[in-house]
Design a protein that fits this description.
alpha+beta, YehR-like fold, six-stranded antiparallel β-sheet, 6 strands, disordered N terminus
Length: 149
């Protein structure tokens, strides 16, 4: 009888682990830097928050440093970035901002996935990714050229 009870407790414990009954939160931070021709350098940071291996929040920061020869176009470039997200910037679950500081365009985007409508998820390319696990998300971003920790 003790063996049956002991095995049942072990099985239940294992079942709880599989179904995610214990609350587990993780944060994945990934960065990437790139040179775009001789016009600008780009540094991106994506911070993804997971709750029980489901994506709940994505914070993205993109800093575009424009080379001196192209600084006169910086406002046009920033406006182009603003226009890319114009249709979702005021949606529930989205915080979006573009600032220009000298020769740097600083773009920040926060997406709280539980509040996003389907069109916003599609625009941000996060349609099915809220079901991505931490490890799947990390692998995908690293394959795209990001360094993750």
């Amino acid at each position: 009888m003790k063996n049956i009870l002991k095995n049942s407790v072990i099985a239940l414990s294992f079942l709880f682990l599989l179904t995610g009954c214990s609350k587990s939160t993780k944060t994945l931070t990934c960065t990437m830097s790139d040179e775009i021709d001789d016009k600008m350098s780009l540094t991106q940071t994506i911070v993804t928050k997971f709750d029980n291996d489901t994506v709940t929040n994505i914070d993205q920061n993109i800093k575009m440093t424009v080379k001196d020869d192209y600084v006169s176009y910086i406002e046009q470039m920033a406006e182009g970035v603003r226009n890319q997200y114009a249709d979702i910037k005021d949606k529930d679950g989205i915080v979006f901002d573009v600032k220009v500081n000298g020769n740097v365009i600083d773009t920040t985007l926060n997406a709280e996935l539980s509040k996003l409508d389907d069109a916003s998820k599609k625009k941000l390319n996060v349609n099915g990714s809220s079901k991505s696990t931490y490890e799947e998300g990390k692998k995908s971003l690293e394959e795209a050229g990001y360094t993750c920790k």
